[in-house]
Amino acid sequence: MLFLAMPGLIWLAGLLWFGRDALSVTPHAVKCDGIVALTGGKDRIETSLDLLHRSYGQLLLISGVGSHATLAQLAGKSQAFLTPELSARITLGRRAVSTVGNGTETAEWAHSNHLHTLLVVTAGYHIRRAMMEIQRAAPDVVLHPYPVRPPALRRPLDKATVTLLVREYNKWLGAQLGLSRGTNLTPAA
């Protein structure tokens, strides 16, 4: 009977490790050639704009931006220091529609701008899978994680937060097993 329960116990132990890792976000900024922020959650873009403003990278890619979104809309509270000079160093990547697409979009941007090191900004629960997909698409680029703690992980654990962590853990496991292959980009206009 224990033999039959073993896969479930291993999955549960991995989920507990993953959840603890996602909740214990301790970002450490490293100066890099560029910064990439993956859309999809609060604080990622504002954090990346602050890092660009503080010169942790020379260029910034915001990957996975909606077709009609503007930099001013995305900047939120960070508009105060969004100068024309800083804005000129920001690329809005509009082709990625998934984390795999973020990896492809980031690789293309890094290579076209001759960037060798990137600071990757996304949620703590998303950082491991994002780093994996970007590294797969750009194995020659050195990546440094900069996880942010989104509002969902700042409150006590509830059903929605646990569901989010389970979903993200399963996606990360799928990526580990190579089930997330592809480019997932919208066609270039």
UniProtKB/TrEMBL annotation:
InterPro entries: DUF218. It comes from the Bacteria. It holds the Pfam family DUF218. Residues 33-169 form the DUF218 domain. This is DUF218 domain-containing protein. It comes from Kozakia baliensis.
